[in-house]
Design goal:
The chain has helices at about 5-15, 20-45. It is an all-alpha fold. The radius of gyration is 13 Å and the shape is elongated.
């Protein structure tokens, strides 16, 4: 699964989540995925 797919899936889960504890966990996972996407973009730009 690509990082973009993972981000989309986590956003979808978060939008449907009704449990606060689970929503916090999903939001944390989403932030990790977003940070990873940004890191990969920086590495890609540096390689050019």
């Amino acid at each position: 699964m690509s990082i973009e797919q993972q981000i989309e899936e986590l956003r979808a889960e978060l939008s449907c989540c009704r449990d606060r504890r689970e929503a916090r966990q999903i939001a944390a996972e989403l932030q990790i995925a977003l940070d990873e996407r940004d890191r990969l973009a920086e590495v890609s730009e540096t390689a050019l």
